[in-house]
Design brief:
CATH architecture: Up-down Bundle
Structural class: mainly alpha
Number of helices: 5
Shape: elongated
Helix content: over 70%
Length: about 140
């Protein structure tokens, strides 16, 4: 595994741990408990599914796991924004985690685009005259 992959593994795990600790300080209300649960699920899923993506044994499995990581990072950012906007925690308390969720979502979305592009580049293409013959037959 590359140094970059190891660093991202550690970064996603650190993010999950920080979110779990952060959620302990959320209000013990119906909304606070619900949002804390959703945020913990999403943030720990980022770490767990990135680890799984790193162990993927096929490109389609890697792309599938990476898509989950990207979605869960984006969902984590959403829950953190809701916490900030509802005033459950101060902007200063949420800001660092919200920024980290945004950065992780951006990283994994870009990685997913690259992985999907590499997948498409590996697929066989039709030779140019087979395409033109196909379109001639349909006219």
């Amino acid at each position: 595994m590359s140094a970059a992959s190891q660093a991202l593994k550690a970064r996603t795990e650190d993010f999950a741990v920080a979110v779990v600790k952060f959620c302990e300080a959320l209000p013990n209300t119906i909304a606070g408990r619900k949002i804390a649960g959703q945020l913990i699920d999403a943030s720990t899923s980022v770490a767990a599914n990135y680890r799984s993506a790193c162990r993927a044994y096929t490109r389609p499995l890697f792309v599938s796991k990476l898509a989950i990581v990207s979605e869960e990072a984006d969902e984590s950012e959403l829950w953190l924004r809701i916490i900030r906007r509802t005033g459950m925690q101060s902007t200063s308390a949420v800001g660092r985690l919200e920024q980290e969720a945004h950065e992780l979502a951006s990283i994994f979305t870009a990685s997913l685009r690259t992985a999907r592009g590499a997948k498409r580049a590996a697929e066989p293409r039709h030779p140019p005259d087979s395409v033109s013959r196909l379109s001639d037959n349909t006219l």
